[in-house]
Amino acid sequence: MSDFDQQIFRLPRPLRLESGAVLPHVEVAYHTYGHLNASRDNVVWVCHALTANADVLSWWPGLFGKDTHFDPADWFIVCANILGSCYGSTGPLTPNPETEEVAYQQFPLLTIRDLVSAHEALREHLALPRIHTLIGGSLGGQQAVEWAIQRPELFENLVLLATSAQHSAWGIAFNEAQRLAIQADPTYTSATPDGGAAGLRAARAVALLSYRSYEAYDLAQTEPNESVLTDFRASSYQRYQGDKLVARFNAHSYVTLSRAMDSHNVGRGRGGVKAALGRIRARTLVIGITSDVLFPPSEQQLLAQHIQGALYAEMGSQYGHDGFLIETAQITHFLERFYAPSYVSQPAPQLSI
């Protein structure tokens, strides 16, 4: 059971969403790497962030891949493209197989719990009775913590990076600013796959301000020539990053998934965040980033405080929120300590760099 090519799983039945809407036909694109061992206890499941895809080896190098901590030679690694995305799973641009109609902005509201429902259906399809490690950062971490609450007996270890128990007012405001940029693009309602491209470019420029830090921009984008009056390095960087995203993503999926992120609240219907986190039984490592302005360390500290026995680690990084994708050497260091036998039975100390 291993395939470096993308595979498609078709849910055997319609998927009822948390909103009450129903997706009658659902496909989930996924990748697997490595092989299940005889005892089927070497499964690592990766939940990806907003604009990533199921090919985790391509976007998390240094942590996943040959000679890394999660080497497919040792682990059976699963990563599924989330619902609402544009990398193979059912989303706003997926034609209805019966009518051939495309939903565009009429695609129903997805929540984090809906994304987890698709993961759970795929896990059952793959016949994986136990997952050694569930890991995710940012929106991926939101999925991971929700899944660990829903199925506490399923996961042995849980690794959460730069994420939260509830999406903050600050994070929602950033997402709304990005959606306003997209909706201000008159082509967004044109019912075409590339509708809203100019708005998406602007949205990405807004998002980058929450993904990186003052220090990162100061070090990499400060103008070396003091005589420059326009077309600054930082300006061209924003345009370049916007163009990159438009070339590989679409505005409809971006709006859908940012709204799903806003919906994240593990305490909804469970008596609050503290009670919900108390359901988790996996050994848990929570990693915060000192320079993260989108998911500040206080949000990870809250997770560690209310997940029984959780270990909390904090890493310094100039890269802000994006540090969870970049600082793989630090993450590997924390993982090695987390999995070391001496830490198995300890209470929740803060690990130091």
From TrEMBL:
Could you state one GO cellular component term attached to this entry?
cytoplasm
GO biological process annotations for this chain's record?
A: homoserine metabolic process; methionine biosynthetic process
Q: Which NCBIfam families match?
A: homoserO_Ac_trn, PRK00175.1
Alphabetized, the UniProt keywords read:
Acyltransferase, Amino-acid biosynthesis, Cytoplasm, Methionine biosynthesis, Transferase
Quaternary data: Homodimer.
> Per its record, how is this protein called by name?
Homoserine O-acetyltransferase
EC number in record: 2.3.1.31
Which family does the UniProt entry place this protein in? Answer: Belongs to the AB hydrolase superfamily. MetX family.
Q: Name one GO molecular function term.
A: homoserine O-acetyltransferase activity
Q: In which pathway does it act?
A: Amino-acid biosynthesis; L-methionine biosynthesis via de novo pathway; O-acetyl-L-homoserine from L-homoserine: step 1/1
Q: What does this protein do?
A: Transfers an acetyl group from acetyl-CoA to L-homoserine, forming acetyl-L-homoserine.
What the entry lists under Gene3D superfamilies is as follows: alpha/beta hydrolase
**Which reaction equations make up its catalytic activity?**
L-homoserine + acetyl-CoA = O-acetyl-L-homoserine + CoA
Its subcellular locations are:
Cytoplasm
Any one Pfam family here would be Abhydrolase_1
Q: Name the domain of life.
A: Bacteria
Q: What organism does this protein naturally occur in? A: Hymenobacter taeanensis
Give me the residues that bind substrate, please: R204, D322
Q: What is its main location?
A: cytoplasm
Q: State the top-level EC class.
A: transferase
Q: Where, by residue number, is the active site?
A: S138, D292, H321
Location of the AB hydrolase-1 domain: 43-324
